[in-house]
Amino acid sequence: MAKADMLSRLINTLTKAEKRYFRLYTALQQGNKDYVNLFDMMERISFRSTAELKQAFQQQYAGCNYEVCSKYLYKVLLDCLLHLRMQRHSTATLTAGILKCDILFERSLHEDALKQLHKVQTVASASEKQLLRLWAQQQEMQLLQQMNFPGITEEDLSQKQSDIQDTILTMQQIRKQTSLYETLRHRLLYVGNARTVHQQDAADALNADMPPTVPGSATSLKVHLLFKAHYHLITSDYPAALQVFHKLHQLLETHPALFEDTPADHLLIIEGILDSLRAGKHYDELSSFIDKVKRLNGDSVYFSLMQQRLLFIYETGAYIDNGNFPLALTLLEQYAPAIKRNILMMDISKQAEIYLYMTLIYLGNEDINNAHNSLEQVLQSNLYSTLPIYRTCRLVHLLIQYELGNYEYIRYETRAFRRNLQPDTKRSYLLERTVIKFLGGGEIPTVTAYRTSLWKKINASFEKIKADKYERQQLKLFDFSAWIEAKLKRKSLGAILQEKVRAS
């Protein structure tokens, strides 16, 4: 990302409190304030490009160097945000405390330096910030050695060395847990749920390697539960995943400091609960939890954006599942402006997910052009092609082409789609094979008896899919069988989905 774009992103993500602090901070500075003028301009006006911003700035403030001002503004903004973080986050405060010890020691204030290090160790130990605790312990040993160990017996020295080793061992065990969790989550993001025996075995192997939690460590328990929750997600055991996510939510409420440095974990827990509730079709509980999500207060633009994303995905997802596409469209119109404006702040998997849900809502409302345009945002870029959701996007793209009557195009695309499946057994990816076989048949004859007979055959395949633990999880995102049934019975997709809800 270009430096100018980074500056624009930084300014656009500032909260009101951060902007206020920036103005107080710069008011104390002496000398030229051209960089503040640049800040005011970027905050007040939305520019289409960096070139347009540069031209406007140089016209209004003749003689000012835009490049110098923009670089200095970026530096000052980061300094302000760092100062704010040191006041609000314990990790930053502890880090500053250790650095203060160096200053005290350099000025021969040894006693105060040791007191500061002991205070940092106590707080770091209580909040389980093991890396900072280890840093403070090592700093203490270095200071004592330079002072020739005043008043320290060999037993005392041995105890301090033992404490350092205990800290390192705890860090090693938590690091091993974290490494396994990172690997599992990477697979979930870029491979998806286990859809073959081989993928299931790979997840089971990671689960078998997971060490037990460190006794008395809430941090170790947190990582262990995150691993277990994602293991259940990747193996499509949603009831078990929901139980673990609820335990994580309880841990979040009793140990909020654990998530201070990892707000993304907080969001993961919330999404895990929402995803598991939707997968289990617990819509009343899902609605209740969505209300809790609405009451969350984040202290950053990113947290607010992710909150909006969760509400959009799971509120509209519930309406999609139940065939209420008009209400889903109302929510889309409500959430879309803010989400689209900041969508580049999301990672690529979340971007693709947003576009896919927009597509499904338009498809359910029979707005095929907007459905096509939304999905093109994903399909026209190689950025998303490695994601598991990309396969679903391609499959939905074929449904849209079918709605448009592009049957020859579908036959061409389905051949390429089959080549890319590459299953490790002939029975894998039955859902995709069933859908593309129907689509490849082209236009459906008008004869009712033929349509009824064809639906019986296709429905039999979907019954197998629903009975297969490796296949049925693919229906969680979108009920492809309902779309085919709607085509064959000449009903709307919403009507078919509503019939299924009433029959369940």
Write down the Rg.
28 Å
Low-confidence stretches: none
Q: How is the biggest beta sheet arranged? A: none
Shape: globular
Please provide the count of β strands: 0
Oligomeric state of shown chains = single chain
Helix/strand-derived category reads mainly alpha
Annotation field: number of helices: 24
- Mean pLDDT, as a whole number? 88
Helical content stands at: over 70%
Secondary-structure element series = HHHHHHHHHHHHHHHHHHHHHHHH
Provide the β-strand percentage band: under 5%
Distance between the termini: 50 Å
Describe the structure in your own words:
The chain contains 24 helices and no strands. It is mostly helical and about 500 residues long. Among the domains are: about 5-90, no CATH class; about 90-150, no CATH class; about 175-275, no CATH class. Helix 5 packs across helix 6 and helix 19 packs parallel to helix 21 (about 430-440). It starts with a helix and ends with a helix. The model has no long low-confidence stretch (mean pLDDT about 90).
Task: Record the SSE blueprint.
Blueprint (H helix, E strand, L loop, with lengths): L2 H10 L3 H12 L6 H11 L5 H11 L5 H23 L1 H17 L3 H17 L3 H17 L7 H37 L6 H13 L8 H17 L3 H17 L8 H17 L3 H12 L6 H21 L3 H17 L6 H17 L3 H12 L8 H16 L3 H15 L8 H11 L7 H20 L12 H10 L3 H11 L1
Helix pairs in contact: 1-5, 2-5, 3-5, 5-6, 6-7, 6-8, 7-8, 8-9, 9-11, 10-11, 11-12, 12-13, 13-14, 13-15, 14-15, 15-16, 15-17, 16-17, 17-18, 17-19, 18-19, 19-20, 19-21, 20-21, 21-22, 22-23, 23-24
